[in-house]
Each structure stands twice: as C-alpha cells, then as structure tokens.
Amino acid sequence: MYQRLLNFIQRHNLLREGERVIVGYSGGADSTCLLHLLHRAGYEVIAAHLNHMQRPEAEKEERFCEEQAKKLGVRFVSERADVPKIAKEKKIGIEEAGRFARYDFFCRLHKSFDAKVATAHTLDDHIETIFLHLARGSGLTGVSGISVQRDFIVRPLLWARRKETHAFCEKENLPILSDPANVDENFTRVRVRKVLIPAWESLHPSAVENLARFASIAREEDIFLDAQARNLLSECEIEPHPELSFLHRDVERTFDVGCLQSHPKVLLRRAIRSLVHQFKREISYELTEQILEAILQKHKNSVTLEGGDVVLETSQRQFRIRSLENPPDFCIPLSIPGEVAFDGWKIVAQKPQLENAGLKAIISMANVRGSLVVRPFRPGDRIQPAKSRYERKLQDVLTDAKVSSALKRRLPLVCDDEGPLWVPGVCIASRAAPDASSESVSLQLLPMTPE
Questions:
Q1: Quick one: which of 44, 128, 296, 399 is 20 to 30 A from 245 by CA?
Q2: Using CA atoms, how far apart are residues 395 and 223, in angstroms rounded to an integer?
Q3: What are phi and psi of 394, to 5 degrees?
Q4: For residues 319-334, average pLDDT
C-alpha cells in the first residue's frame, strides 16, 4: 500500500517531497489509511475533521479523530457544519449539502495553511460516481468520474479498493469509525455500492478496473474536446471593441452564427455548455439542443437559464450569452493629476503626453464646466463628437459604434457638469478637443492588474 501510494503520487505529480498537506479525516478506514500513509511518507500532515452535526455520535466521533491525530503526532483542526440546515436553506439533498460543507471547509483551510487538501476517495468511490452520472444522464465529463487532481484538491488513494484500506487498518491495528450512512440504502450511492457494483463485477473479473480505464480515456478525450471548443469560440467571437473587452467579457459574449455553423455539432454543443459554465451556471441537455438547433437553422430564439439572470439569444447573424446584471452606480471625482479606480478598471489623468487614440485621450480644460467626474452612461446623455457638426444622443453614437448593451452599462465616461467629455474607445466631445492655446490633460483607461 505504501509503495503503491508513493508511485501514484509521483506518476501524477500530486505532492512534492515533504510538502505540507491537509488530509480530510473522518475517522473511517479510507481517511485513516491515507492519514497514516502520508505521515509515514514524511509529509507535513494536518488532519482536518468536519462535524456534520447529523447524528448524536458526531461530537464523540470528533473527539475520537482528535485523539487519533494526537497519537500520530499530527496537527488536528476541526469545524462544525449544520448540514441538515444547509440542505434546507439551499433546497438540496443531504448528500449534496454535506459535500458543499466539506469543500467550503477545505477551501478555507487551503487558503489559511497555503497547502493542498488530500481526500481519501478510492477506486470504489470513482466507480460509484461514474454509475451515478450515467444514471442521471451524462456525457464524457460525467463518465470521467472523479479526477485525480482538481484545483487544490488531490486524491492519492484513487487507485485503491475500499477492501484494501480496511485490510490496511486491520493489519496495522488502527482503530476506525463506522458511519451508519455507509449502509443506509436510502442513499443512492449506497444502493450503487451494494447492488450495482457487485452485479457489474459478476460480468468480468476485471470489470471495475476496466471501467476505471475507460473513465481515464474519456477524461483525456474530454480535455481534448474542451480545448477544441475553446478554439472554436475564439475563432467565432465578435468583438467590435477588443480593447474594451476587459470591461464586459465576464457578463457578455457574442459570436458569429455563420462561423459557428461551419463547425461540427459535437463541438458546438460542447462550446455552448462551456460558455454557460464560464458564467457559473448549468444548462440541461434539452436547452442545449434547443440553442444548438436555433444556431444551425438561424432561428431567432431566447433561453433564460435557471436563476433568471443569464440569457442565451440567437438571431440570423449572432449568438449571444449575457448576464442580466444591474447597471453600476457610481460618480467619482477625478483630480488632475490623479486617478479613479472602480470594478477592475482605472482612469488616469496627468499632464499631456499621450495622443488621442483608443483608450488614451487628450482633452482641453478650457470649456470644462465644474469638476471632472467618472460615471456610467445615463439616459438623456448627449455629445457632439469631435469633428462632427451636430450634437447627438450618446445612445445613438454608441449604437453606431457597435457598443453592446453590456459594454454600455460598464463603460466609464469622463464628464463635467454639462455631460460627457470622453467616451473611451469611441470619441471625445468637440468642446473638449485640445488646441495649442489651452491647458490640456491626458487621460487613459486601463484594466486593473491583480497585486
């Protein structure tokens, strides 16, 4: 067991030698086996226990886990989560609520200790997950089962059968806890464990291992197809103002329908799902097919996803996904020199040193009325663009410049008491056009870079 664990960690590059690692420790055979093997391998182990507050024995089990960690000489951390309450508030099942609570706990520990989290998922868990996903209706992603590594989570025991972890604990004389939920057939996973897997194993001596191999192949092909779908989206995306994409890319994406139609349906279907996931939402197979058909037939269609805040729209020319967010509300004074920062962008004002182009502008201060402020578009805004003879509604100017609704909501405008002076990426007001006889100021819109 020990050597197989080391080989698996090395083959998948899960942990560095002597690295600190947080182990999800329930006291059961799987997590006890993992805790002891990683400690024996010389890793700096932290045992992390989450009390689900579901059974009267929960507090006793928490104390048991703490005592076992102390005997082993590893640090112990624990928290309590009212899983039944979480299930009720989120309107989800107990199993899903428990999973949510655990990963929330692990995420906070990961950030606190700057360490990966090792969970004790076994090959049996992997196979159970595959069957559950198949029963619920799944594509390649679902039949890939449990990944060896995802973000900060690693699963060093994914090669081991559950009977092997129990045998290890028995051989090493390690005390373990038994969770009644593991034999309660009210849980779908338990029914898979007790009924479906034994029936599957009866078909072939290596049925479980062969299914795990299939899942591994499916995962590789899934990753490849995801990359192809991302390339498809990149090729077909429409962005009239690419220099401003950082302002609205997270709330709106637009694609050319003709370009999309030139690709295989299998990639289009995956691209639709990928886009929805980027907006942190899920989409059913039925809705995916509805959008796919609308793209292929160039039909006008609109689908609102569950939650009501993300819409997918198709027309003869465009396919768009957008978030129905509320417009930002801000009005921030801009000093000279100085800068204004808000929601991922900043506008810098300084002495003239930039030419009028794109997200850079020089404006004259001679006709500025009152103080400079940075604010979003407002209905009724008007502007006479430089080199234009007439004042126009700013809405019409933005429409002519192909500024989308999402970008319009997020585009910061430099204004005075009279109205807009500079619309980044679009125009400056005629009255703000610089000349040699007046004091000028240089403006620039920049994306905020993470520190």
A1: 296
A2: 43
A3: -60, -30
A4: 91
Burial of 157 (0-12, 13-18, 19+ CB in 10 A): buried
Using the Cα atoms of residue 314, residue 317, residue 321 and residue 322 in order, give the sign of their dihedral.
negative
Are 185 and 78 in contact by the 8 Å Cβ rule? The answer is no
Torsion of CA 293, 299, 300, 303, to 10 degrees: -10
The answer to whether 319 and 277 are in contact (CB under 8 A) is no
- How far apart CA 25 and CA 32 sit, in angstroms, is 7
Please tell me the least confidently modeled range out of 172-186, 248-262, 338-352, 383-397.
172-186
How many other CB atoms are found less than 10 A from the CB of residue 56?
6
Nearest-Å Rg of the Cα atoms of the chain is 29
Answer whether residue 224 shows pLDDT above 90.
yes
Print burial letters for 324-359: b (CB count within 10 Å at least 16), e (below 16): eeeeeeeeeebeeeeebebeebbbbbeeeebebeeb
The first and second tokens of residue 353, run together, are 């040193």
**Separation CA 335–CA 304 (nearest Å):** 42
Quick one: average pLDDT of 267-290?
Answer: 93
Tell me the C-alpha distance between 14 and 118, whole Å: 9
Range list of β-strands (E), 225-267: 252-256
Beta bridge partners of 364: 440
Q: Answer yes or no: are the C-beta atoms of 23 and 68 closer than 8 Å.
A: no
